[in-house]
User: Fold histidine kinase from Desulfofustis limnaeus.
Amino acid sequence: MQNDYQGQALPPTSGPAATVTPLPASPQNELAERTGEWSGSRGEAAAAQTSIRVQVSLLDSLMTLAGELVLSRNQLLQTISTNHLKCAESVGQRIDLITSELQEAIMLTRMQPIGNVFARFPGMVRDLAGTLDKQVDLAIYGQEVELDKTIIESIGEPLAHLVGTAVEQSIETPERRRQQGKTESGAIVLRAFHEAGQVVIEIEDDGAGVDGEQLTAHAVRKGLMTAEQAHVLSDNEKQQLVFLPGLTPAEGGTGMDEIRSAFDKLGGQIDLSGEPGQGTTISIKLPLTLAIIPCQVVMTEGERYAIPQVNLEELLRIPANQVKERIEVVGSAEVVRLRGKLLPLVRLADVLGVQRTFVDSEDGTIHADRRQRIADRRSRHSDQEGSTKPPTDEPVANRQSRREETDRRSAPESALNIVVVSAGSLTYGLIVDRLQDSEEIVIKPLGRHLQHCQGYAGATIMGDGRIALILDVANLAQLAQLNSVDGSDRASQLQKETEVADAAGQSRSVLIFHSSVQEQFGIQLDRVERIEKIKRSDIENLGAKRVMQYRGGSLHLLCVDDVAQVQPLADRDDLLVIVFSFGTHSIGLLACGPIDTRQIVGQTDQSTLRQAGIAGSTIIAGQTTLLVDIDEMVRHLYPEWF
Assistant:
């Protein structure tokens, strides 16, 4: 989550803040030495700490859970000896619950407030600002946010360099700020907060900002990229060049590429945005702990792999009969259009060097997959690489003829399962054979004989005892040599089409779902916060309300038929909960699959099927789709929220 503030003043954030005004300049050591003093010496002191404080109440909780675990173990042993399977199931559920609670309690013993790291920055900023004859106000928020002790000890030095760089390079001198119409005192905001199971640290200033054009020219002069490569970069990619190895290291200092590597080793992500003259925002996402992380498990060629959820954006499934029309070729990259953007695609089997296979739907035999392209035909080609030459020697007439043939993809197993992942500013789609459940896994380091293998961040042991490798999505992108498509002609054309449609109010991204088997519904995608898979047994009916346990609290549940005159929710055991936020409240809409996302262009019918909770209708994939007005539904059921 990033905030771009246009202007001089930075808006306040709720929570306590610490404000620092620099002292008059005094003789100091060199700037790099001063930064190193604060980040290095204190970092070493923190690293030397071998003990932590734990509250007695937490120790009591651990002792209680240990006792419960011993009792459950005895029950399990007795159940096994008597071969009482029904009792074994209930004992297994109890052990699962106790193990989860024990895991959370043990993690709490390692958690420390991030204020232990932030505490060093007021003095550092005061000294640096005095050395450089600058005036800097530092505001700190979220000091109570907790992280694993290992992460706390590792982020001190990188954060010190980022804060020092903001003071040294971004914040202007008082005279320069007066000339630009800014206040003489520069502002730096350092905040930490929880978001989607991660901790986000933001360093924001109102200084000179990031000049992407200057960075690009500098990279070309140093020979780090060619002029042709620089020409196709988007504005955001030009700003991300600040992390390019060899581009930004100070004399005898630490480069931004080293800062990124430090956070990558912690399983984190760092992103930068800003406008020249308006300031810079650096956003860092970190996991709560390094020992246990949530992952999405996928399968490719019979092997399981784990993708950390910190890198996971969304899951996308393209039905077999839509592959031909939705996959395009831009330059040398195969892409799919996803909500007005071109998403480059990578086959996981290809980047790992595994032979791709497919199963014959007629006799079940396994054959080698010899397809060179994901789709059966090629689409429009851009001149990204400065050439209009077709990518193969196939005659143009043959390619045109092949485009007009009926697509042979029809079997459900021919659908594409795409895991949309992000590595820094780069987002791409990873094509896998099957998607499995998300799980919390215990990270194990790779053995010495596998540490030279790129593309893997570690390994874990699954429930059946087999090994699953944890994928490093950043290294996978490098191995696949992904090309940028943002600056291509096709991307520019698509952007113009999207902007025209958006300006006319005719383009919207919707989430497609079902409530009953026959009726299809759509809801505005940017309103959706999260989608959860649940069992019908998870729903509790308390009074006249439906609720479920959700993230340590209760989540209100509703159905479309609670307000609109539509068919009731399908009688299925497996359900979906689409979560929405309304200020401080959250609510879940019960639904069932299949689900999909679509970009609809054109006016919707707001009269024919309009009713309470239904804003109108449109035709999607040949089926009438009712568009849900979630705001109207919630206002009808919970008027006190408004």
